[in-house]
Design goal:
This protein is an alpha/beta fold and about 550 residues long. The two termini are about 60 Å apart. The strands form two sheets. Strands 6-7-8-3-9-10 form a six-stranded mixed beta sheet. Strands 2-1-4-5 form a four-stranded antiparallel beta sheet, with helices on one face. It folds into two domains: about 300 residues, Up-down Bundle (ABC transporter transmembrane region fold), CATH 1.20.1560; about 220 residues, P-loop containing nucleotide triphosphate hydrolases (Rossmann fold). Strand 7, helix 17 and strand 8 form a beta-alpha-beta unit. The chain binds adenosine-5'-triphosphate (ATP).
């Protein structure tokens, strides 16, 4: 699919407004086209002293000027309103889609780039659709109308127009080639700037701790400088293209003045001479506009390509899976699971493990052995290359991925907290959560004291990444979040790593109530946490070895 087709597809839902803009600007062009003729007649009338005809010409000229202004205002307002709609819709469509893409896609793409694409670049695209593309008919009409009228007034002199066309074409072609390259570079440089700022702000505590503010500011400044230089090169060509074409047209018009005087004086009305020259001058505007359009289309093409690549990517396969078992008991079976991340070998090479419903299994093993990976496969963040994972004897590949994930409460080592209230962080922003469920989750996670100790309780804002909480407090919030949906399966991924031995023992004791009647996978290296488990499974060399059985509690 080429860029033009894709852009027309994007424009399809807004065709009525876009046609409306085109109609208003077309009507504006018709009035604009009448102005040189009327102005020429007025000047001709004044020079030739034809007083009786002048009032009517003046009325028509003023009418045309007022109508042009009114239509311009109307089309600009409609264009801004439509652009706003397209922008909001495009952002939502892109965001929704990006959300459904597999984790492996996000692992490979840079967050800042994605952010630039779905916020800034689509903004440029919506402006391109409304302010540039929708005005093409009027530009064409003005250009064609001016040419036709020039030929009608004096066909011999109007021949300068076809002479200019190849010149314009060559100019646009040369500039277009360079603009395409520079647009791509400029977009990448812009994305680098966002990525650098985003990374630095995210890393700020480390940057301060290691006192490397200057070095980071310098690397950011280098990214800015690269973006500035590329944008400058692009603007130079972009800025020169339309005026250069306008200049060519204007020079041609001057040439005409020099040759036209004698011809016209001899046998024509001076009003026609003025009209001819005004039309020649008017021609420069749509020609410049079309040249601008060309430059902006080169820019838009890059965004279109990137947007198309993202939008045409398939969502995670799990969204298409049909099964939504009404009750999940919680038995899990990993059967001969093989998995490696792109470009790597391992970490899992035939891992098998059966976990009964209600059982607590501790997963342990060296760093990088593949413990977290097993859980990511269970929650279908990734798909195993070989082997099967069963949940209550159903292959998880057949279960709708959201249904599956809602059945598994995840407590990661560092829960992803955001700048909202404690309540929003526990409910993940979902409104109308049953207050009893919320309270039960807070109690089960033993987070009641923590909530009461904060100045505004559940309504306390906790800052970006929960900076206003301690690591251990954050983990309790993470546990409450996992428990709020009352999932039959709970996964604690190094959830006690933030605690000292004493607090760990307390957390472990606290957790016992939360764990009852659930299937639990605890990833840990810590003895106190291992003691919670019915069974210990060791991940080693890509397989799972069940090491030890404890009497069932
Ligand atoms: N998104 C990823 N892309 C590529 N490789 C990855 C990715 N995530 C993990 N790995 C690699 O896979 C291996 C297993 O990682 P995993 O996080 O499952 O280990 P783990 O047993 O949980 O380790 P730890 O005890 O340190 O948390 C590691 O070698 C790691 O580098």
């Amino acid at each position: 699919m080429n860029s033009l087709r894709f852009i027309l597809e994007l424009a399809q839902p807004y065709r009525k407004s876009l046609v409306g803009i085109s109609v208003l600007t077309l009507a504006g062009s018709i009035f604009t086209l009448s102005i040189p003729w009327l102005a020429g007649q007025l000047l001709g009338g004044v020079i030739a002293d034809r007083a009786p005809g002048i009032p009517l010409v003046v009325i028509l000229l003023v009418g045309a000027l007022v109508a042009t202004t009114g239509l311009q205002i109307g089309s600009t307002i409609l264009s801004a309103a439509t652009s706003g709609h397209i922008l909001a819709d495009l952002r939502l469509q892109a965001y929704r889609h990006v959300q459904t893409l597999p984790q492996s896609f996000h692992d490979r793409s840079r967050q800042g780039e994605m952010l630039t694409l779905i916020t800034f670049e689509v903004a440029m695209l919506s402006t391109f659709l409304t302010s540039t593309l929708a005005t093409v008919p009027s530009l064409l009409l003005t250009a064609a109308g001016a040419v036709v009228l020039l030929f009608l007034i004096d066909p011999a002199m109007a021949l300068f127009v076809p002479v200019l066309v190849p010149l314009f074409y060559i100019l646009a072609k040369l500039a277009g080639r360079r603009l395409r390259v520079l647009s791509r570079r400029a977009r990448m440089a812009d994305a680098d700037v966002v990525v650098a700022a985003e990374t630095n702000l995210d890393m700020l505590p480390a940057i301060k701790a290691f006192a490397i503010e200057d070095a980071r500011a310098e690397s950011y400044s280098r990214a800015l400088e690269r973006a500035r230089l590329v944008a400058l090169s692009h603007s130079r060509i972009d800025a020169a293209l339309a005026p250069a074409m306008g200049l060519l047209a204007a020079l041609a018009a001057i040439g005409l003045v020099l040759t036209a005087g004698a011809r016209f004086e001899a046998n024509r009305d001076p009003g026609d001479l003025f009209s001819f020259l005004f039309y020649a001058a008017l021609l420069a505007r749509p020609v410049g506009g079309l040249a601008n359009l060309y430059g902006q289309f080169q820019w838009a093409k890059g965004t279109l390509t990137r947007l198309r690549i993202v939008l045409s990517r398939d969502p995670e396969p799990g969204y298409a899976a049909g099964e939504r078992p009404s009750r999940i008991a919680g038995s899990i079976s990993f059967q001969d699971v093989h998995f490696s991340y792109p470009g790597r070998t391992g970490p899992l090479r035939g891992a098998s493990l059966d976990i009964e419903k209600g059982e607590i299994v501790a997963l342990t093993g060296a760093n990088g052995a593949g413990k977290s990976t097993l859980v990511k496969l269970l929650t279908r963040f990734y798909e195993p290359q070989r082997g099967t994972i069963l949940l209550d004897d159903t292959d998880i590949a057949a279960i709708h991925v959201q249904h599956l994930r809602r059945a598994i409460g995840m407590v990661p080592q560092r829960p992803l907290l955001f700048d909202g209230t404690l309540r929003e962080n526990i409910t993940l922003g979902i409104r109308n959560v049953d207050p009893d469920r919320l309270n039960a989750a807070i109690d089960l996670a033993q987070a009641r004291d923590l909530v009461s100790a904060l100045p505004e309780g559940l309504e306390t804002r906790i800052g970006d990444h929960g900076v206003r909480l301690s690591g251990g407090q954050g983990q309790r919030i993470g546990l409450a979040r996992a428990l709020i949906g009352n999932p039959p399966i709970l996964v604690l991924d190094e959830a006690t790593s933030m605690y000292d031995l004493e607090s760990e023992a307390a957390f472990v004791k606290d957790c016992m109530t939360a764990l009852v009647d659930r299937t639990v996978i605890i990833i840990t290296h810590r003895a106190a946490t291992l003691a919670l488990a019915d069974r210990v499974a060791v991940v080693e060399n890509g397989v799972i070895r069940t090491e030890e059985c404890r009497p069932t509690r």
